[in-house]
Write a structure and sequence with these properties.
Structural class: mainly beta
CATH architecture: 2-Layer Sandwich
Number of strands: 6
Strand content: 35-45%
Number of domains: 1
Order of helices and strands: EHEEEEE
CATH class: Alpha Beta
Distance between the termini: 28 Å
Length: 106
């Protein structure tokens, strides 16, 4: 992607990680530090945004943020809820540095 967009360097990458994604942010940071070595992203930073754990209640129709070990409606306390967010791993942004003189003639 970086080369296709004329980038000389990947400056930063931003991701969104939910608590139920199976991704441990600290381990992702360590893996990123290793994976970027020797690549166009060698000096890139990784920004990890943690997504809230949100459920929607089938009983009372309320959407609420809940704790990791309590997937219950925040209003009525029922367990009949649908997960709305918290299991995602999303690429939010990629910041590239381009050589503006590349491709210039004359």
């Amino acid at each position: 992607m970086a080369a296709r967009n004329g980038a000389r360097e990947v400056v930063g990458i931003g991701v969104v990680v939910g608590p139920l994604s199976g991704i441990e942010p600290a381990l992702l940071e360590r893996a990123f530090a290793q994976a970027r070595c020797g690549t166009i992203a060698a000096n890139a930073t990784l920004e990890i945004e943690e997504a809230p754990l949100t459920v929607w209640c089938e009983g009372c129709g309320v959407e609420s943020q809940v704790a990791m070990n309590a997937l219950l409606c925040g209003r009525c306390g029922t367990w009949k809820v649908d997960l709305k967010s918290g299991n995602e791993l999303l690429l939010k942004q990629v910041e590239l540095s381009r050589d503006e003189t590349a491709g210039a003639t004359g």
